[in-house]
Each structure stands twice: as C-alpha cells, then as structure tokens.
Model the fold of this input.
Amino acid sequence: MEQFTFIIKDKNGMHARPAGAVANCAKKYKSDIKIYKNEKEANAKRLLSLMSLGATYNSEIVIKIEGEDEKEALTDIKNVLSENLSEG
Amino acid sequence: MKIYSGTGIGTKKTSGVLRFYKSDGQSAYKNNFTTCENELKRLELAIKEVKKALEKMHKRAKSHIGDEEAKIFEIHLMLLEDEDLMETAHLEISQGMCAENAVLEASDKYCKMLKALNDEYLSERAKDIKDIASQLLNVLSGKDVSESIHTSPYILVAEDLTPSQTVMLDKDMILGFVTFFGTPSSHTAILARAMGIPALVGVGDIDMEHDGEFCLLDSEKGELIVNPTDNEIELFKEREKEENRIAKEHESYLRSLINKPAISKNGHRVLIYANIGSEKEAEGALLNGAEGIGLLRSEMMYLSLDRYPTEDELYYAYKEAVTEMKGRRVIIRTLDIGADKQIPYFNIQKEENPALGYRGVRICLDRIDVFKTQLRAILRASAFGKASIMLPMIVSENEIVKCRELLEECKNELFEENYAFDSKIELGIMIETPASAVMSDVLAKHVSFFSVGTNDLTQYTLAVDRQNPKVSHIGEENREPILRLIGYASEQIHKNGGWIGICGELGADLTLTQRFVDMKIDELSVSSPYLLGVRKRVGECE
Done:
C-alpha cells in the first residue's frame, strides 16, 4: 500500500473543480484510492464523495492507495493535488 | 417607490427595467411508480438526454463566455454520472419510488450533506446538484428548457440562478443581477464580477408585480429602488456621473503622486506606509504608492488554522511580503492575540478583563516555542529584502530585553543551521499603553523604532472599552490626551535617536495630519485605500 499526506493550500479548499480533477485522475487506475480527513473517508474516484470530505484551506488529508498500479497512481495523484490544490 | 436592500457585489451602479426569471419550483411529485425496471429505464434515458443538453451548454459557454465559466458544465457532467448520487437514486427506485422522486431524494441527500459542511463555498455547490436534478426532472416530466428572450437590456431578478440557467441568458442584454437568496460566493455573484456588472444578492422576496418596472441598482449601497421618483433618478444619474469622474480623476491623480515623497511645506518628510493583514495585500499597497509596510499583522495565519502554523508556512508568507515590496521596509508585528482576538488551540483561559490580561507579547514570552518559531520565520524572510520586527503590548524595558535575548538565540541557531538572514534586523515596539509612551526615553535605548497603535492607546488612556458602544464616543470626544502622549513620546524618541510612526486609525484622520507633522512623526501607516489621501494631505501641511 502507498500512502502520503498533503496540506490543501487552495483558499477554496477541495471544491468542485479540483475534486473533479482528482476524481478523473483516480478513475484511470485500478487501485483502490481513498482520501481521509480526520475520521472521514472518501472514495477518490467519486466527485461527491470528495466534495463531502469538507477538506478546506489548510486541511491535512491522507491519501491511501492499494492495488496493482499503486505506484503509478501515487505519482499521478500527487501531481494532480499539487497542480489543483496548491496556493492560488 | 419601493426600496430593497441586500449584499452588493462590486461598487457599480446601473438603472433599467426589472425582469423576473421564471423557473419551476421543485416540489415532490405524485408517486407514479410503475415497475422497477421501467423507472430505471426512464432515469437512464433522462440522464442521456440531460447529458446531451449539458454537452451543448458546455460548448456554448466555451464559445460565448469563456473556459472558466464552461468548466462548471464539466463538473455538472461528472455529477450527472456520479456513482454516489446514482446509487442513491437506484436504491430509492428499488424501494418503490418513481424516477422523479428518486432524483429529488438523491439530490436532497447530497445537498444536505454539502450544506452540513458549513463551508460557504461548498454549500453553494449544493446548487449545482439541484441544477442537475431539476434538469433531470424537466426531462422526466416532459418539459422543455427554454430560453427567455428579451430584446432590450434589463436587470434580471431571480430567486437564485444556477449555471445552466445563466448560460442560456443573453449576456449583452443584462445590466445587473438581483437575487432573493445567495451570498458573495454564489454563482450569480461570481458571474457578475466576471462580467463587471453590479449585482445584489440575498435581498429576500421581491414582489413579482415589479416585473417590467424601472429601477435603480446601486451595488455599493446594496440598494435597489423600484419605481424611483424623477428627483431620485436625476440624483442617481448625477452621482453615477460624478463617481465615474472621480474614479477617473483619482486614478490619474494617484499615478501623478506615486513615487513622490510626502513633504510638508516646512520640509518635514513623512514616510507613507501601508497597514496590511496578510502578505497577499502587499501588491495592492504598492499599487497605491506605499513606501513600505508599517504594519503587517501576523494574526491571520494563526486564526485561519486549527493548529500552530509551522516555521516554513510563516516563512513563505513573510518572504512573499518582503519580496513583493522589493527592498522597501516591511514591519512585521509579532503575534498579538488575546483580548478580542482569541485562538482556540492556544487554550487560553477565560479572563475577567481580557484587555487588561493575557495578550500580545505577554503570551509570547510564556509560549517561547511559538514565539521563536515566528521570530525564526521573520529572520529567514529578512534575507530577501528589508524586514523589521515589531513587538506589541510592551510596557517595560524588561520585556524588550527578554525578547531581544530570544531574538539573538534564534539568530545563533539559524547561523548554525546555515540559514541566510539580516543580522542587523531592526527591532521596534508598539506604543499602545500610556506606560510605553511615558517611558519612551528609556525604551528608546533598546529599540530603533516605535509605532503608535492609537486604538489601544485610546482604550488604555481613557479607560474606554473599544467594543462597548455605550462608551466608545468618549474616545472620539477626547483626542487631546492621546495626542499629548504621542507628542511626548515623539520628542523623547527623537532625543534618543529613534524614529516614530503611527499605525492606528488616527493615522488616517486627515484633520490630525497637521498635528502629526508638527510633532515630527516620521511615518504614517494606513490601509491602502487611504494612502493617497494621506500623502496628499502631508504635502498641504505647513
């Protein structure tokens, strides 16, 4: 299993557009991709699930990836997060 | 004539005819459940139909409005195919609900979930789900999504507008928006800003009878006047004209003053600095000709988190401000919480008299780790320009000595760790208490500059609680004691080789500028919109 943490630096948090980008990226992989914020869990392949996390500005989220293509998924998800949820 | 008020978006004015946007309300449908198979089939077909329509709208938005606006339809397409939403709808159908009600139930469930997050932005997105749901319902119940056609410009009134509704509107015909509901982050508000037209949101119910009536919309005042009198129209038009003229004049005047020092007629130079609440405001300060930052409040970063910020997080913020100001002085005030600014994770006990209690440097000298983290961040940022440190709530020499020791400790650590920093970084203090003003000759031996926080100085000199409306007028009526304290401090500080600025509200009070020039105040720090006015006033002083 692969795992990493990320701090959301977009002032609007995990809103619709970045969540859409994350979901689109996650859907490309066979692995099970979950995102956690505190005790809440979201399926990274599902837009509404991601939006319902309530991951706001400066929230720390944990991403856990498990499956045959977890290594590739890890790099890709990391990139999408930093492209879409970093400052700005 | 009837006046409505709401939250204005932007500062513009417009006038024109009101038109109501007509949309169907979403209420529960009569349960027309046939068979599970049939209802699922109907839902599937409706999704296909809406998908086609959305793809069309996406294209139209892309060519007519822009990529940003078009992106919302990509999101809608994703929502339409969202497994969570559809699973819920399928579940409802399998339990004997017709497709219409299943869609309503599913959208309700997720709208509630998003609203429960208590995030203004995400709550607004609940509308995107409703938007999708109402399109599905329209198809399911055999209605057409039609476009309202208008041939002359108008002000659009609606309960609230969803992206699929606004994309079908002819933007050239819209002078402004008025909505019953909504907030500054509603879709309507975002659209209004993007289009550069005025809007008024959260107005509450507007009588449908006003459809087609002439009105005046003033987003700065947050006011909509329906059926204004001729007199009012004339006044409104005049103000509109005047505002446009002033805006233009101000703009060109601003340009002419930027980069010119503010010097009074008798040759006293005053530095005009800006007060900012976060590094993001530095750009605006520069655009208004700030010669430096007289007060960078550092509380925002701490208030916006639910944990202590890290050294790196603080460092990046300060570095941004210092870099943006390109070598101009940036005075960073160390954390000033307590009193009216409380932060839950600091776990500060409730006090009888918080203003006279645990606040500012008093907390920092107890929570040395937190304080040192901030000092280290400022020091590291000082490598990129000219940063200065300012301590709040100082009443004694002893406090400065302690802070200075910690500062030296931080410098030594950073030196050991090979970080670059300005080893001669200036240290200054706020004058917020009568004690610091009266003792300024002694304190001046320990620091290079002072800045007067006039709000707190007023509060502590006159024993007037800033937050208490019953007594706050006493502060406004008794400026003289405050001014005398500032005058005394200025004299003592100059005698001892330091300099003094004012970063409180009184700094922007143009009726006092002459007095400050007479006292030889070296710097006035005000928020960006006042920079130009103060700069101009200093030049007029004797």
